[in-house]
What we know:
- The chain is of the alpha+beta class and 112 residues long.
- The protein has a domain at 9-84.
- It has helices at 87-96, 100-107; strands spanning 9-12, 29-37, 44-48, 59-61, 67-69, 76-77, 81-83.
- Strand 4 and strand 5 form a beta hairpin.
- Helix 1 packs antiparallel against helix 2.
- The longest helix has 10 residues, at 87-96.
- It is elongated, with a radius of gyration of 14 Å.
- The model has no long low-confidence stretch (mean pLDDT 88).
Amino acid sequence: MKQFQVKDKVVALTTPENELSQHRVRGKVYEVTDTFICPNKSIQLININDTKQKSETSYIGCVCGEVHENRGLAWTHSDHFTSVNDVKDALAQAISNEDYDMAIALRDLKEV
């Protein structure tokens, strides 16, 4: 599982379909501004660009089945991102999966 640190630059691998999800655009670069590790499953969630929560609740539902305090921030599972240092690997994977839209987005990333 990917583990990111605060201030890491990451590339979004997905664009969320749910409007309550943390906003991100597939193929765009973001900065990790906070991290959270689920105490039950050791799954990392990250906050990008200091995105605030959109709902009025102060909790998030976790894949472990429990709820955790969200600290007023929006969170996304770290598997929805890759490090800018791993863009070449992500590009090769996108081509292998015939995901050409993602391959183009990764190819066109400017120096970060």
